[in-house]
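**User:** I keep going back and forth on a fold encoding question. It is easy to fool oneself when nobody else works the same problem. Could you pick a protein and write out its sequence and tokenised fold? Could you put it straight underneath, so I can go through it closely?

**Assistant:**
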Amino acid sequence: MRMEKLWGAVLGTTLILVVLALVTLPAIRSAFAFSSEFKGGGYRVTIEGSGSAEDTKYTGCDPKGRCLTIEEASWQEHGSYTWENNGYTYCMSPMKKRDGSYRLKIFDPKGKVILKQHMTPVSGASSQDD
């Protein structure tokens, strides 16, 4: 009888911990959410997310005001992000300067670079929620 009560307590505690983890995970991710905006050469790029690839969205607008949003990065590492859409690849990589600048590269489906643009952060657009 004692063993049954012990296992019931262990299972009950485990279930409570699993539920708490599932409920608090979105809150933990949103605590580390960010939004950064960059501009250069008439282009404007906004990166939003939590820092992990699956939660990092790209919105890029060209000089004519045509915009594209890609909801999920395909790769992320050391501040660099890559998104893919219809065979095109969009890469944002930090530059070696310490001013927050990024390099936007866009590749066509054959891998040819069709845009290589220095992007500077838009003042006041970068934020991290507390």
User: Anything to note?
Assistant: The chain has two domains: 1-31, 34-122. The first strand starts at residue 34 and ends at 40. Residues 1-31 form one domain.
